[in-house]
Amino acid sequence: MQHDWLIDVLTDLKAFAQANGMGASAAALDDASLVVLAEMTSLARAKGQAGSSMGEHDNQSGSVTYLFAGRGHA
Question: Structure pTM?
Answer without folding.
Answer: 0.62
